[in-house]
Amino acid sequence: MKHFISLGRLAALCFLLGLVLALPRGARAQSLEGSAVTGIDVSYVGPETVSKDRVLANMRTKVGSRYSETEIEEDIRGLYATGKVQNVRIFGPPAGAGVRVQVILATRALITEIEVDGAQKIRASSVRKAVKFKIPAAADADKLEEGREAINNLYQKKGFTDVKVTVELVNNQEKGTARAVYTVNEGEKGAVREIRFVGNKTFSDRKLRKQMKTKTKTPIAFFDKSGQLDQAQLQQDLDSIREFYQNKGYIDIAIPEVRQERYTGGLRLVIVINEGVQYHVRNLSFSGLEVTNDQKLRAVLKMKEKAIYTPEALTADVKAMNDGYGAGGYVDVDVQPQGTPVGLGLVDLHYTIVEGERSFVERVTIVGNTRTKDKVIRREVLVAPGDIYNTVAVEVSKQRLENLGYFEKVETFPEQTG
Q1: DSSP assignment of 55-108, as one string?
Q2: Whole-angstrom distance, CA of residue 364 vs CA of residue 384
Q3: Three-class SS of residue 247?
Q4: Which residues pair with residue 36 across a beta bridge?
Q5: What is the mean pLDDT of the chain?
Q6: What is the mean pLDDT of residues 255-279?
Q7: 150 pLDDT exceeds 90?
Q8: Residue of 418 and 159 predicted with greater confidence
Q9: Is the bond leading into 136 cis (omega within 30 degrees of zero)?
């Protein structure tokens, strides 16, 4: 595939550096650009939980300054960054010879009280201390969730593996305040002491336990969180076990049951496994080939006839073919695999390929570079005008630019030019 020969289209390669926010500006906004700011009005949708002085203090736009759409965008980002604003709109209608800026915002409710319900085996005051954010504070979903997780972890450390914690925000619309209510269902006490598997024939219990983050309690449980049972983590562990089996060829792996058995002094997890059979590739075939052939494609594949059939190998082989075509300038190649069961433990694997046209680089455009000279950037770029559009070289170029450490973000994309 390194020697494809065909006429193709031209493409422009664009390197987008940093974080560039482009917003459309109307003709009216452009005509106001640079006009004097004669005043700033702040109005609220709902209760006023952030003072007008605080709003103005977080804005770069000031009375007497020049109106700038760029500064308005920065002001909007700055107000959101305070964490106290739920929604904001800023615009500048003309007022005489200048602009009178209008700020319309909805502020977040102010949490003035934190309440704990359902705590019996651990004192409510101790549970309350686990919630670290201070009041009064603007309602923030992330901080509320951090509080819920902190309470859950407190109970887990005490051996309450069945604990369930929910949080609800009770709003007072008139005052713009809220009460955060954490409800605890403590459940039974008892750390995870055993994890057993039933039905696993190919892999040992020890091997399967290594796929899990849920662990049986150890002498240092206070530090390593062993013995704790988090239902969300348990589901992720089951997914990891399924993925482990499938990447060993056991595509039909099923976990029909997970039992939580309590006994004196702890909790036993029993995970039931139906392994199924291991799948192998019987036949391998391709369609849609015009610029290459079966033999060249097979040379880059790891999963061929008689190989174990796994999703991991399938993904790697699709990438290898995409990279092979991409190195030859076939940017839009589409590789679609289809595995068809044809008997006990056998799969026929077919790849349908739409190769597309070959692309060449017409120009390389750099956008958003304010940190260094463009020639420093171009020195790291491995493609140049006139070259085949090599997607592998483009990806390596992107990594080289990221490694410079100058930019928060580097993006590359092609633009069709002809």
Answers
A1: HHHT-S--TTSB--HHHHHHHHHHHHHTS-EEEEEEE--EETTEEEEEEEEEEP
A2: 7
A3: coil
A4: 66
A5: 88
A6: 94
A7: yes
A8: 159
A9: yes
Q: Report the alpha-carbon distance of residue 252 to residue 242 in Å, rounded.
A: 9
Q: Which residues, in sequence order, are bridge partners of residue 15? A: 366, 412
Rounded Cα distance between 124 and 155, Å, is 12
pLDDT of residue 16: 63
Amino acid at 376: V
Contact 328, 2 (CB under 8 A): yes
Alpha-helical runs (H) found in 255-342 = 294-298, 311-327
Closest C-alpha to 359, from 319, 326, 396 = 326
The rounded distance, in Å, linking the Cα atoms of 268 and 214 is 12
- CA 378-416-289 angle, to 5 degrees, is 105
pLDDT of residue 31: 62
H helix runs in 158-267, sequence order: 205-209, 221-224, 231-246
> What φ, ψ does residue 82 adopt, rounded to 5°?
-70, -20
12 pLDDT higher than 80: no
DSSP β-ladder status, 94-95 and 98-107: antiparallel
Q: Which residues pair with 271 in a beta bridge?
A: 197, 258
Which pair of structure tokens corresponds to residue 194?
């055993």
pTM metric for this prediction: 0.63
> What is the CB neighbour count within 10 angstroms for residue 310?
21
Cβ neighbours of residue 232 under 8 Å, at least 6 residues apart?
Answer: none
Residue 340 pLDDT > 90:
yes
Two tokens, residue 418: 């002809």
pLDDT of res. 25: 39
Q: Are 47 and 176 in contact (CB under 8 A)?
A: yes
pLDDT at 301: 97
